[in-house]
TrEMBL record:
Alphabetical list of Gene3D superfamilies matching this protein: 3.40.630.30
Name used for this protein in its record: GNAT family N-acetyltransferase
Organism: Bacillus spongiae
Domain N-acetyltransferase residues, every copy: 1-133
Domain of life: Bacteria
Length: 133
């Protein structure tokens, strides 16, 4: 996506994260400075059961590779116990590597990976906390 005429990147669902009950925005702080953000959604399967989705997850480059992303992801998984689904864009290989490593460590390798319905990238599914697949 392109930036707008003011040089800003417009996220289509940004406002809804502060107004809708099933969307949860988080700012990630590192030593009292903002180091990233995460947007979590609660969605429903066709069967009616609920699951959580990591809609957006971003850590500033200066805070990467020191455990901030891992710690933040683990805290979010624990905060929202239950079924999770995380998907990545096919072209974003670093994101795929990150999520596979983080989810595998969090679940002790107990997760399922499939392709998105449109075939454009992987999806990891797992349960957080004491839930098991």
């Amino acid at each position: 996506m392109d930036v707008d005429e003011n040089g800003l990147y417009r996220y289509n669902y940004f406002d809804q994260y502060w107004t809708e009950n099933e969307r949860f925005p988080f700012l990630i702080k590192v030593n009292e400075k903002y180091g990233g953000f995460a947007f979590v959604r609660k969605l429903k399967h066709e069967t009616g059961s609920s699951y959580y989705s990591m809609a957006e997850f971003f850590i500033l480059k200066k805070y990467r590779k020191i455990g901030v992303g891992k710690q933040s992801a683990f805290q979010l998984f624990n905060f929202f116990p239950g079924e999770w689904e995380i998907s990545e864009v096919e072209e974003n290989i670093p994101s795929q590597w990150f999520w596979r490593r983080i989810i595998s460590e969090y679940t002790n390798g107990r997760y399922i990976e499939t392709e998105k319905k449109n075939g454009r990238g992987p999806v990891q599914r797992f349960y957080s906390m004491e839930d098991t697949m």
